[in-house]
Amino acid sequence: MAVELRRAEPPDADFLVELNADEDVRPFLGPRTAASREAILEEIERSLAEPDAFGRFVIEVDGEPAGALGFHVANERSRIARLERLAVHPRFRGRRLADDAARQFQRLLLGELGFHRLELEIYAFNERACAHAERVGYVREGRKRSAYLKDGEWVDSVLYALLLEDLDSRHG
């Protein structure tokens, strides 16, 4: 199984709409996640126009779209990227391809794009995503109590980060 990451392009919009709308994916995405084809196309265009500051990527397995992930610059001066929207289509789950994709993404952002720190925030109820973050090397830095109103209830989130030296220490 060959897992590859590539920057999203306009023909990927329909796949991304389907992925973001999937009933097994949507509950775990933030409220600002692009849902309409037009909004997704705007994000793809921005990703292509500002590749060092914003990214929307497609995860492929043997050339077939299987998931997505993205980033945006959280702090330009301190070279901090905020990761977001990691989602794997349900038909590709259970193969740990999100782990492979996340590690590739870490190398791209820390190595090629020169970020110093990667951050991500996960709803605390999303135990699967928290386990994934820890499995691929992110360090749990804290919990934001009652941080977000989700479906009429206040929910906690968990903060994670990864530094270049964390990545280097994993690979000896």
Question: Can you put this structure into words, describing what you see?
Answer:
There is one protein chain. With 172 residues, the protein is an alpha+beta fold. The protein has 5 helices and 7 strands; from the N terminus they run βααβββαβαββα. A 7-stranded mixed beta sheet has the order 1-2-3-4-5-7-6, sandwiched between helices. Strand 6 (139-150) and strand 7 form a beta hairpin. Helix 1 (13-21) crosses helix 2. The two termini are 25 Å apart.
Brief synopsis:
The chain is of the alpha+beta class and 172 residues long. 31% of the residues lie in helices and 37% in strands.
Q: Overall pLDDT, averaged?
A: 93
Topology pattern, helix = H, strand = E:
EHHEEEHEHEEH
* Second-tier CATH architecture: 3-Layer(aba) Sandwich
Question: Quick one: overall form?
Answer: globular
Blueprint (SSEs and pairs):
Layout: E1 3-7, H1 13-21, H2 37-49, E2 54-61, E3 64-75, E4 80-88, H3 97-112, E5 117-123, H4 127-135, E6 139-150, E7 153-163, H5 164-170
Parallel strand pairs: 4-5
Antiparallel strand pairs: 1-2, 2-3, 3-4, 5-7, 6-7
Highlighted features:
about 170 residues, 5 helices, alpha+beta, Aminopeptidase, globular
